[in-house]
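Lab notebook, bench 4. Still working through the backlog of constructs that have no structural model yet. Next entry is a single chain of 79 residues. Request: give me the C-alpha cells for it.
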Amino acid sequence: MARVIDGTEMNMIGDNVRLLRKKRKMSQQSLSNALELMGVYVCRGSVSRIEDKSRTVTDIELFAIAKVLDVTLDELFDK
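Model written out:
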C-alpha cells in the first residue's frame, strides 16, 4: 500500500495556508515571526515550502499555524 507522502505533495494544507495568510495581509516572514513568538521555529523558507507542499508539517506546527491564522484545524484542511 502506498503511503500518502509517496506522492509529490508533502502536506495537505499548503494552499490554504497561503490563502489564509494573504487574506490576513501577512507576509511569509511575518507568519514565521508569529510562529517563533509561540516557540515554533519555522523559517520564512520553510513557510514557502509548506505553501508549495514540498515540506511536511508537524502536528505542533499545524496547531501553531492555525492559532496564528486564527482558524480551526478543519479550516486548514478545507478544500
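Notes after review: The chain is about 55% helix and 0% strand. The chain has a mean pLDDT of 93. Flag for follow-up if needed.
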